[in-house]
Design goal:
45% helix, alpha/beta, 6-stranded mixed β-sheet, ERCC4 domain-containing protein, 24 strands, globular, RuvA_2-like, hydrolase
């Protein structure tokens, strides 16, 4: 622990009620939680931990393993544990990790005695709201256990300032009064971390020319999309900046502003939001991945988003694809040994015969098509190798001079160099780069890229309609038209380039297959694909792929006959081999690569003396500071690798400014917020006692008993277990209803013996119609309940409509949600559809529906729809009212339709009576003489005999 952790714990313990702690990211929150665990004693009751992620559980449990004072590990309660085992764990007084869904069900079913809970520790408090399940749990426990303490934690301050008074609302829903803010610039934190800071080396790596061009082009396209977004007048333009666009939360900002009207927006606006997310990834991947991987990602974007995306048709978008391609290879016709695209020389179609192959290969240089490998390595790779060699040289000097023993006071320096990367892919690639050399890694990525071309070519072709080409390549709307001649020329070059890549890919594929088979004897032959393979050419093993090898590939006859290539050469890239071979001979220190996305607290496990932040992250920087503060005797050296003048630097600096701004906003909110408290000084949350009386309770009968209030009965609602994923049970409990959680076969909510409700959010409604699940659900409700109800629930902050008025047509269409609802009601006439504007409106509707109804029976509700041992289904409303077999028979008779079969059922009691009715009476019931005559003729028709 660092001393400021003790200050946080002291502040928390001052209030027996608990508090909300917000810290900067990376300040050792897991160690703070572990210290609170050590203060817990089993005699106080059980301590429950909610909302913990798997990585947070692992970090906390690892502290237990390293601490000798802790003897009993915390347990985890899952749905696999039976009820009796859960009850024994609750009463043991231990520390328990549990999900909010399991806990709320156990509380409502009284499996967990509330007095057995000493306190709650809630992690990731930034995800809470007044309708969340965690708030539901706290409200139930607070109502019966006044000794309970709640301690909530969050290390994402920017999430605590999103929305209106987020911190104040979180305090109220958890019944807390104290807000504890611990930013990095807090006095105690800064003193502890800056007392003996690690040695820092900031290395700025210049980007290559093409990387600078790609970054500039992406920013231009992003700026164009942002300007286009501002024209919609749907979002707040102040937040729409390129700097904000670098963060993942930018997508959340835009979606939060557009969410209320999202389903009413046009396709163009929705696509702009998606394009901004794609462009943010392009900036991130540019500095994270190598050139070949980046090109492969762009190819996938071009295939998946070709004509849907708006950014692809922006003015600068072609530069992104062009520069990304030039980082990997150059393609064109050779002009007297110089590489370049000759736009004036026309390509001739020729067939190559076997006896004229040598003559055709000696054609002029102007007709040759050349695919030259570039395979630009990420600039950080060379810098990383240089840093590792520099570290080893320093250690060798220290070992020879005897300085190493002097600075190792603790004697635990294992010499490990930790390299922190963003993701697992980067870790594996860098490890391969350090082990085998950067050129070999690029060669392998290049071969994988080419092999993907072969695999794509081998896929079965679909005979689809030819896609219409874009109107143009304008800024965003395609206003700049392309001339037919220019378009034809571009497509011609693209076809040649594709065939050249395919030819190179086939050569690589055949070479790899031959290496696998092990046929190394036949060095001089022409293979089945037509590739000329000489001794030492095109037959390199994987380990010697970087050796010099020119003019390896010649095109096959099929590629020639397709009219795309006169002659193609693959010029292999062999730069930097001497430097790489010298690097491989030098000794490097032991290196461990760590993925930041895994969120594992690796520093305490490995205890490295040297750390290289390959992808700098603000949270990891703080973890390094904590690690050094806890180990003051250990010398720690940190290298930061930044691309100079890149969005990587801007994003890192902006993250610091954004976090500081969030804490400044929280400090202002803390000075102004008002928390309601009761006489005991405890916080009063947002429960039913503070809300105005409902309409039902206000409707008192004042003429009877002198206006005395009648004894209010407790409203009960039976709720399906699966519904606890939503927040409606919480709101119903806030309104004073008693929630009974059970597993229901039919419906989601049972309000009375007659009323069954199937609740659908907007997203669920569309999905249920698409899968056909809603039809089955409504059919089951109509079968077992007299009043089946479909509740369509909108969000409070969204538009109270399915679609804009201009999109609603007059005709029934298969894709219209209004048409589907109309057909559903026509098919099930007893179905009631209720539209709810919000969760609270739903609670009021439920209270109104229950006002004149009996309370539901839990036992009967569970048995509805479940056949007994004899196979009999109880409470079948349809079977009670009608002979279902006779109804099905009636509906199949000639002249009987959906519009008249109910009138026929009301007019006669059985099929036998129907067969005796005259035509005149049938005409009255069936609504027409024609239908009556058709049925009469069918009933009177003689059955043919076999005699």
């Amino acid at each position: 622990m660092v001393p400021f952790h003790e200050h946080i714990i002291t502040d928390l313990l001052e209030d027996s009620n608990g508090g909300l702690v917000i810290t900067s990211s990376g300040l050792g929150l897991h160690k703070l939680i572990f210290s609170l665990f050590l203060l817990h004693h089993h005699s106080q009751g059980c301590l429950l931990i909610l909302s913990a992620t798997p990585s947070q559980k692992t970090s906390i449990l690892r502290n237990y393993e390293n601490n000798l004072q802790s003897q009993i590990l915390p347990s985890e309660i899952t749905s696999d544990l039976p009820v009796n085992q859960r009850l024994s764990l609750y009463t043991s007084g231990g520390i328990l990790f549990i999900t909010s869904r399991i806990l709320i069900v156990d509380l409502l079913t009284h499996r967990l005695p509330t007095t057995a809970v000493a306190g709650l520790i809630i992690l990731n408090a930034h995800s809470l709201s007044d309708t969340s399940t965690e708030a539901f749990i706290v409200r139930i426990l607070r109502s019966t256990n006044r000794r309970l303490y709640v301690r909530a934690f969050s290390d994402r301050p920017h999430s605590m300032v999103s929305g209106f008074a987020k911190a104040e609302r979180t305090l109220k829903c958890l019944f807390l009064r104290k807000l504890h803010l611990w930013p990095r610039f807090q006095v105690y934190v800064s003193q502890d971390l800056e007392r003996d800071p690690p040695e820092v080396v900031d290395i700025r790596v210049p980007m290559s020319t093409y990387m600078i061009g790609i970054q500039k082009a992406v920013i231009e396209v992003m700026d164009a999309c942002l300007k286009e977004m501002k024209k919609t007048n749907k979002v707040d333009v102040e937040d729409l900046t390129v700097e904000n666009g670098l963060f993942k939360s930018f997508d959340e900002i835009v979606r939060r502003q557009l969410d209320p009207i999202w389903h009413t927006l046009g396709k163009r606006t929705k696509q702009l939001v998606s394009d901004l997310k794609t462009l943010r990834k392009l900036l991130d991947y540019l500095v994270r991945y190598d050139a070949v991987t980046y090109l492969k990602y762009l190819d996938s974007l071009r295939a998946s988003e070709s004509f849907r995306s708006i950014w692809i048709f922006a003015e600068s978008s072609y530069k992104i694809f062009e520069y990304a391609k030039k980082r990997v290879y150059h393609f064109g016709r050779s002009d007297r040994g110089k590489l370049g695209l000759s736009k004036t020389v026309s390509t001739k179609k020729r067939k190559l015969n076997d006896n004229k192959k040598d003559e055709d290969q000696s054609t002029s240089a102007e007709s040759r098509v050349v695919l030259e490998e570039v395979l630009e390595e990420p600039p950080k790779w060379k810098v990383l190798l240089d840093v590792l060699m520099e570290i080893q040289e320093e250690r060798d000097k220290q070992a020879s001079s005897g300085e190493e023993k002097d600075h190792l006071v603790d004697g635990n320096d294992n010499g490990i160099v930790l390299v922190a990367c963003k993701d697992e892919h980067s870790c594996m690639q860098l490890e391969d780069c350090v082990t085998n050399g950067s050129q070999k890694v690029m060669r392998e990525e290049w071969e994988k890229y080419l092999l993907s071309k072969v695999q794509l070519q081998a896929l079965p072709k679909r005979h689809a309609k030819k896609a219409k080409g874009p109107k143009g390549f304008g800024v965003l709307d395609g206003v700049v038209a392309t001339s037919p001649g220019k378009k034809a020329e571009v497509s011609s070059i693209s076809k040649q380039e594709h065939d050249a890549l395919l030819a190179a890919a086939l050569e690589v594929s055949k070479r790899i297959n031959k290496d696998i088979i092990g046929d190394d004897d036949d060095q001089n032959h022409v293979d089945g694909g037509g590739f000329v393979k000489g001794k030492g050419k095109g037959m390199k093993k994987k380990g010697s792929a970087g050796e010099k090898n020119n003019n390896d590939v010649a095109p096959n006859d099929n590629a020639m006959e397709s009219g795309c290539l006169d002659e193609m050469f693959l010029r292999k890239h062999d730069q930097g081999l001497d430097a790489e071979s010298s690097t491989a001979t030098k000794k490097l220190p032991p290196v461990v690569f760590y993925a930041l996305e895994s969120d594992t607290k690796i520093l305490d496990i490995l205890k490295p003396s040297t750390i290289i932040a390959y992808h700098p992250d603000i949270g990891f920087v703080r973890e390094v500071e904590i690690y050094k503060a806890e180990n003051p005797s250990r010398k720690v050296k940190v290298y930061f690798l930044f691309y100079e003048d890149s969005t990587e630097v801007k994003k890192f600096e902006a993250s610091v400014r954004r976090e500081n701004g969030a804490f400044e906003s929280l400090i202002r909110q803390k000075s102004l917020m008002m928390i309601p408290v009761d006489q005991d000084g405890r916080c009063v949350g947002q429960d039913s006692s503070n809300e105005p009386q409902s309409i039902i309770s206000q409707n008192l009968i004042t003429r009877k008993a002198g206006g005395r209030r009648e004894a209010e009965r407790e409203l009960q609602v039976i709720v399906d277990m699966r519904e606890f994923m939503s927040t409606l049970p919480n709101v119903l409990h806030q309104k004073g209803m008693h929630i009974i959680p059970v597993t229901l076969e039919v419906g989601d909510y049972i309000l009375s013996p007659l009323i069954c409700v199937e609740r659908k959010s907007i997203q669920d409604l569309f999905g249920s119609f698409a899968s056909g699940r809603l039809y089955h659900q409504v059919e089951m409700m109509s079968r077992y309940y007299r009043i089946p109800v479909l509740l369509i629930e909108f969000s409070q902050d969204k538009s109270f409509s399915f679609q804009s008025a201009s999109e609603i047509g007059d005709d029934v269409t298969p894709n219209s949600i209004i048409s589907k609802l109309s057909l559903l009601v026509l098919h099930f006439p007893r179905l009631c559809i209720i539209w709810s504007r919000s969760l609270h409106a739903t609670a009021e509707i439920f209270a109104s529906l229950k006002s004149n109804q009996d309370e539901p029976d839990e036992v009967k509700a569970i048995r509805v729809g479940v056949p007994s041992e004899e196979g009999v289904v109880e409470n079948d409303v349809r079977a009670e009212n009608y002979n279902t077999s006779a109804v099905e028979m009636l509906r199949r008779l000639p002249g009987v339709t959906d519009s008249n079969y109910r009138a026929i059922m009301d007019g006669c009691k059985s099929l036998a009576e129907l067969a005796m009715l005259p035509v005149e009476r049938l005409a009255e019931l069936m609504g027409g003489q024609k239908a009556a005559k058709m049925l009469r003729e069918f009933l009177d028709a003689k059955y043919p005999t076999l005699l």
